[in-house]
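ok so for the tutorial part 2 we go from a plain amino acid sequence to predicted structure tokens. step 1 is just haveing the sequence, like this:
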Amino acid sequence: MDIVTLLPFIVLIGAMFLMTRSAKKKQQQAAAMRNQMQPGSGVRTIGGMYATVKEVGEDTVLLEVAPGVHAVYAKNAIGAVLEDEEYNRIVHGDTGTETDAETDDAVVPDDISSLTEGDKIDLGKKDAADDAGTAPEAIDATKDAKDAKTDDKSDGDTDAK
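step 2 — the prediction. this is what the tokens look like for a chain of 161 residues:
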């Protein structure tokens, strides 16, 4: 066989080797991260739930998902072990700085009326009186025209186009 015919196979095998090597490396890093879990550390599960580790077993982890609420998870279900500052920031909204009180002065309004600056926009439907005029005679004329139109169709004809 010629080397030119073997070259695609060699490249394919090399690519497969590199892909499996990187995947294996990621799996080892994830296992090392899960083995570093200790009671009291904050974690994020692969489902996106944040909890505190209470006990670490061989294959399972006891998590406190809310005060007094415990759940047993497989170690493989832990997506990330978080630093204390990051866990507190995400779960409790704590950032650990005193300058947050200064930035809380901006208040978001409860309703949209303060955003329109006095310009009132009517989003309601218009009445038939608005279309034909406000006089009651115009409303009665509109109703009579509709009734006359439906009376002409009493033999089963329709307005289909």
